[in-house]
Amino acid sequence: MSQRNRLIVLTGPTAVGKGTVEAALRGEHPGVWVSVSATTRAPRPGEVDGVTYWFMDEEEFLAKERAGEFLETAVVHGMAHYGTPLRPVEEHLAMGVPTLLEIDLQGARRVKERAAELGLEVVYVFLAPPSFDELVARLKGRGTETPEQQAKRLETARVELAAEDEFDVTIVNNTVEQAAHDLWQVIAQEYGIR
């Protein structure tokens, strides 16, 4: 695969704003294709099947996993399965469409394990919070998890933050607009876009 068809993997700790930055990026650059992950977790208010995630039960998910239909899979926060459908990623890369995966640390590590066997070239981007205190404030401000779920996510976040040096590029999410701009710069460079 040529350098101009590299998969961009965006990860970072829980509640760092990966989805928000990705949405801002797509608002400015709608030609970027973002993979829609599959999950066994229940939809949150406003989430749409096939747009936000492919929602499925555990039996369906595990059958697809056994069939090799995912680029990566992970169990996140010990609660739900997540996975990246492989075929759409390969199709968009083959067409030269800037292709982005927004996934958690486990998923990024799994992509690293499988990329070579699948012939994928990947650029790994770590989205970091300005500080751990800011990450805590963002997580609590979302209001989508119970205090117990928040505690589990923050425990996970500490581990995820320690993995920053495993990535090719770090972008600090001080503001969504700047982080989206910085992410676009990485994509534009990899795809030869001016």
Automatic annotation (TrEMBL):
Which lineage is the organism of this entry classified under, starting from the top rank?
Bacteria, Bacillati, Actinomycetota, Actinomycetes, Bifidobacteriales
Return one GO MF term.
GMP kinase activity
Annotated Guanylate kinase-like domain ranges read: 5-188
Gene source species: Bifidobacterium cuniculi
**PROSITE patterns, sorted:** GUANYLATE_KINASE_1, GUANYLATE_KINASE_2
Q: What is this protein called?
A: Guanylate kinase
Q: Which gene encodes it?
A: gmk
Chief localisation class? cytoplasm
Source organism, top-level taxon: Bacteria
- Assigned EC number: 2.7.4.8
The Gene Ontology CC terms held by the record are: cytosol
Q: Does the keyword Cytoplasm feature in the UniProt annotation?
A: yes
The protein's job, in short, is: Essential for recycling GMP and indirectly, cGMP.
The record's keywords, sorted A to Z, are:
ATP-binding, Cytoplasm, Kinase, Nucleotide-binding, Transferase
- Compartments, record wording: Cytoplasm
